[in-house]
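User: what does the whole thing look like in 3D?
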Amino acid sequence: MKSPVSYTLLIAGLALLVGLLAFVSMIVGPSTAGTFELFDMMAHGKADTAWMIMREVRLPRTALAMLVGMTLGMAGAALQGFLRNPLADPGVIGVSPAASLGAVLALYTGISTLIPLALPLMGILGALLCALLLQGLARRGGVLTLVLAGVAVSSLCAAMMSLALNLSPNPYAAAEIMFWLMGSVTDRSMDHLLLAGPLMVLGWLLLAASVRALDALSLGEEAAAGLGVNLGRTRMLVITGTAISVGAGTAVTGGIGFIGLVVPHLLRPLVGHTPSRLLLASALGGGALLLAADILVRVVMLGPELKLGVLTALIGAPFFLWLIFRARTELES
Amino acid sequence: MKLEAKSVSVSIRSRELVSRASLHISGGELVGLIGPNGAGKSTLLRAILGITEKSAGDIMLDGKDFLALPGSERARAVAFLPQERRVEWRLPAHDIVMLGRYPHQTGFGGPTPEDRAAVDRALEAVDGNGLRDRPVAVLSGGERTRILLARALAVEAPLLLVDEPIAALDPYHQLHVMEILRERARNGCGVLAVIHDLALAERFMDRLVLMDSGRIVADAAPASVLTPERLATVYRIAGTPPRRLP
Amino acid sequence: MKSSCHMSRRTAWRTHVAAFALSLFAFCGMADITRAADAQARPQRIVSMNLCTDELLMRMVDPSRIASITYLSQQPINAPLGLNAIASGLKTNHGLAEEILMQEPDLILAGRFTSTTAVSLLRKLGFNIVVFDPENTLDDMRTNIRKLGEVVGETARAEKVIANFDARLAELQSQIPPGERPVFADIGVNNFIAGENTLYTHVVNASGYRTLGQALGFDGFRNVPLEEVLSVQPALISTATPWTSPPSMSTMALRHPALRAMVESTPQVTIPERYTTCGAPSVLGAVEILVAARKAAAAQVAE
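Assistant: Here's the predicted 3D structure for the full assembly of 882 residues, as structure tokens:
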């Protein structure tokens, strides 16, 4: 089915949207402080503080929201293409829960209070261990083995995180773990960006290398192999690329879901259903969506902070149900 | 170009699915690989292409080790149409056929004029021009098979391996597909097709290779292979030798 | 009050000298250093990011030196004992780095588990942040009060707060009837019971009771199954929590039929949770309620 818009136009439009939302994200502050108080400060001689806020608080936050959104969108598209299933998302192969578990352990053992960067580092470690496990398990098996392994890893990690909450020494530590798991980019610093950023980009490069093979995989694994696709190499690129990029992102932000599921679904008809084109489009779409959600989180100021992961789930899940409802006949064919 | 399997065996968990099977296919001939269900036909095909790992034997392409060649080179030499007819994603027929050019494409550039020409030729060969822009998911069984066959033809490889090209097709489409394959062979391509319909096999194929329980039991012209004794022992059916249809 | 008038005049004098010196040094670009040094000794724009440091701060420092407290302290349910008037007049924060940066603090107080990302960001940007551990005993409370007094430059006032607290505590404790300490069962929330080595237990002990957790013999906080709760016959119970509206799963536990008999036959009190959340003078509110209950029980027995 031909797409209603040309690919170049779509990418340009999405890139423009991302740029616009990034700009808005830089000028929006927490609504209690007043959106334009920053400009007020600059006008009244407190420019130093205002610029520091821009540079050290809003810039890392905006950059992280954009990069993590792009990562989730891209990984979602890659996984859906590789697993040949429109319901796949980075959580399916267990990478996000594994990264969350690493971070939760850092919180639970108290290492994160001694060394703040221990939290994201342990998250990344968790994701990489998961990737190693998946690579080992999936070598002999196919797509089904991979998905089942991912489900097993997810369940195990969820159980371990529940255990940490269960055995938590005090209610404050338990609350801290719980809130971290809900996902947020609030008050992340440049350190977080410099740690996770390069890893996310590395993951993107790995995913991008698998792009053509994903197209061939539309015909099934055997036909793709017959066309010269190296299935083992493709699997390695997709799993490792997802683990590194999504792992690094989750390690810094906590659990943010539905971006990797909903964005590829939305954009697929606009790229003519071609998996290779969907990757870049989903990356930009994911970045735009997460930036928009993060702006919303700041504008809608309920008493306690509204967590980003909660918002994406609140919007994503019903929206996804609606998408499935609309496309239900299509999914069966 | 000649593709040769020499004493190929395939075992999975100490069960031998294919046992020392040897066959060959060269340009210009249409060969049928026949046998009852479970004989190991598809397994042998997959072993030849390197999709399933063989436990013994060699696969030679013009005397060179076929499986040692890089994937894209193998794909340019031998095109494969598997049994799986499911296409994920609502891709239009034209894009599906274009996937056949994958072994010829490198890097991120789009399709070249040569690619487009090959796709046009392939669609022409299967009489699929009217289906160009239709999503494959909504095509009927016969239309889908033709488009997927066009995808295999678009590779424009000297050899073509096809697994059950006419399964679930009505008689008209069965004949149509067999004619396309025969035309291909006449134009210099070497075509090996796994097939169940003995009448069509006898009618269209230059040579038949008969498999039973993982072994090649016959490899000759159809008349010599499809004898009543063979049909009784291998297929366990009583039958008269097929008559030539006009 | 007289001494504070003296203090404030001296403070004003010091501030004027400092301001003059600052304007001189401003030319040499040394303004930042002196301002920081001065602020170190007596911070003028203090931000508190934690409910408990909110209370201690409000008790020890003039409101003019408080840049903001958490928004929680302005909620009636969380207001510290007797500080409503002060709390309602202050600016608030929600624990977000950006808000706090805009308030331009020279000292930030935080709890060990509060907004850890904001705290590490602010620390990275060079702000003076002092972190307080949650209190487990009344001595922890005294330590934290002294520590706070030191960092805000009000050591004398800190001692005064402690002295006032100790005096009032002693006064209340003198009213406790003699005899073995009976069991007080606070089963208000989801049977989440306090055992040994918790602030809650220390407060209850200081009021002449033992907690259910002590009776059952465990450490820390634990969910206790109903059977175990019923195995101990308490002398006093509290089933009321301030969170009953809107209702939650936790308060449903209170309606259990097995508990009803016990609830109906035992004297009850209601202790606002806020009194025992922080190791701060607000605990005196809880002590008062419990001591009164102890006296009432003794009076009943006497009848």
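In plain terms: Chain C has 15 helices and ten strands. The first helix of chain C runs from residue 2 to 28.
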